[in-house]
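Following up on my earlier thread - several people asked me to post the actual chain instead of describing it. Fair enough. Here it is, all 346 residues.
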Amino acid sequence: MRPIGPSKKRVFRRSARDFSKKRYGNPLFPQHRRVKGRAIQDRQRMKRYAGLALMTAVAGLLFWYLFWSPTFRIESVEITGGSDETKATIHELIHERMVNRRRALVVSQSNIFVCDRRAIEDDIRSRFYLESLEVRKRLPDTVVIELTERAPVSVLFADDRFLALDGSGFVIRELTEREILSLKDLPPDMVTVLSGELGAEVVEIETERGTVSIARGSADAAAEENRNPHPLIVLERGGTPLDRQGFAPGTEAVPGTTLGLIIRAYERLPDITGAGVRWFALPNLSESIDVSMYGGWHVYLSELIPFETQGERLSLIIKEKIGSRMDELEYVDLRYDERIFFRFRQ
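Reply from S.P.:
Thanks for posting it. Predicted structure:
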């Protein structure tokens, strides 16, 4: 039998009901927890917006500092290995690019990061035919250019321009004003001749920077030496294949074999004839060279015959046939293998 004693009562406790939950939802009860959750989401969203705005501001400030502030604006261009005239021209090219050219139509190329190194090389090569060229940037504000120029060995007058040629007949660049001034003898039909003081003749040459005036020698003046520092070659106007190329730097203006013969003739003719060379003319579609000599006479050379052979024949004809009548000579034609033609003035 069970012992008789006080009976235990079961205690029933009611669990708290959350009427904000969906199953207990009632429009009459305030939904405090839902309001609190939305507030938290709003604060998180504001933080994201604030962070995004801060990142945008920092990026904008960094962009301004790198591309618009004076810190990285190009202030110096260092050029090594070129003449003063070449350096001046390159400075002008870079200045024009920095002032008038932009990247993406917005950022000026005066900025060290935006400045196009390859474009600068292309600009320089469009004006000069160089042995070597290197363009690099040095932070924060310097462009460094190292170049090696080709040495001119002759001067070509074509397309109303004076062009410097290298030993292979390629155009190096246009002559500078100082180099034009060094040309003491020019053909009369390429320039305007004015009467100067004391009867001296003055030549006016139009260049990119204005008019240059130089003294010009007389065609009949006696000169035993060459007066121009390099042989002057004149191409006749016309539609020769070489003329149509436009004579851009780096293009072949005169075949190398022809130029070699001209240089050799320029060195040897004064010793053979006792008269200096004024210039060389290359007729259109011809394999001959017209050499204008001091004293007003001409020598016609062939590109197909070595100059040594033509020089020996010229020396022989002067000694045996012309002699003391050099002042009366009009031309000597050496373009034919078996015969030599010469003529005296009437």
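The chain has a mean pLDDT of 79. That should answer part of your original question.
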